[in-house]
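Our collaborator T.R. sent over the components below with a one-line note: 'Predict the complex.' Nothing else. No constraints on interfaces, no templates requested, no preferences about which chain binds where. So this is a plain run: every listed entity goes in together, and whatever single assembly comes back becomes the starting point for the next discussion.
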Amino acid sequence: MKEIDCRGKACPHPVLMTKQALEGLIEEEVILIVDNEAARENVERFAKSQGCAVTTEKRGPDFHLRLQKVKSGEDHKAVREKRDGANVVVYLNSRFLGIGDEALGSILMRSFLKTLLELETKPSRLILINSGVWLSSEGSDVLETLKTLSEKGVEILSCGTCLDFYGLKEKLKVGVVSNMFTIAQALLEAERVVRP
Amino acid sequence: MTCILLFQSVHQVMKAEKVLKERGMAVDLIPVPREISSDCGVAIEVPAEVSEKALCFIGERGLSCVECYQRGDGGRFEKKQ
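Returned assembly:
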């Protein structure tokens, strides 16, 4: 069985390597080896999004992920498109809304997110980049709002590099750690990207 | 049940929020509900049982709430003052 060693590779390489490994793979298996929790999560999520069954085994400091392709990529893409309907992505690249006074920007961001809760049309994803990741981390005053949005099916993706930069990796409280590969793909596949 | 406090300006809202948080109150900033006003604005939401106390704390600092609404169970708003 094919084994791919992603140990020591920085994000988003493990996901890119997974993508390459899965291309052309139909009802076969591949083992991916990663050496950290963030890579494990990202690879697992990506593989699942591609219609794979994933079983993880912890071996010492490493994770061995067995990816079994159960559906061909084409089928899965069709299913995903159907499910998504209106695929709207809200892209927040700062913890503040708008440019100007930061205290005001912070209030406006709270108002914006609360209003999303009230509106019937919900985005499919919320992408948090740069200081935007403070919103999903411990101490944020919009955590409850984000949790409710998440419960209502909004996928909340926080940039892993950004969490790392601000020392928030252990403090993420809602949604998942993501990587540039997933984020760029989500932006490109979106029907509309909203950048308030 | 909660009470929604409206102020003259966003600056007053920010000051009032600070005062109430210093007093350890569970306050939240919310966009002013559409049913109350069509203006863009933010308001302070406090648990109804402590709204009187909140108004006192705010008053002590020379801030005044312009209007106060009570949010009922059905989500309807009732003007208190």
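Summary for T.R.: Chain B has a mean pLDDT of 87.
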